[in-house]
Amino acid sequence: MKSPTYVAELQKKLGAPSSETIESLRLLKAFLKLPSDQRSEIMQLVERLATDPSPGGLSLS
User: Fold this and answer.
1) Is residue 1 pLDDT above 60, yes or no?
2) For residue 3, what pLDDT is reported?
3) What CA–CA distance (Å, rounded) separates 2 from 10?
4) Distance CA 60, CA 54 (A)
């Protein structure tokens, strides 16, 4: 573990991360803990949602 002084100095230089960044890191951490077959299923689902033109689908473009 890094010393509290180092962490404080780093945070002072970089600033505090946004809540979106923190949530993204939490999701990434949870995603990486999944077995690879479940990760593949989630990636396929997200790709389908991103390209689905229906009202329920997400449009990331």
Assistant:
1) no
2) 78
3) 11
4) 13
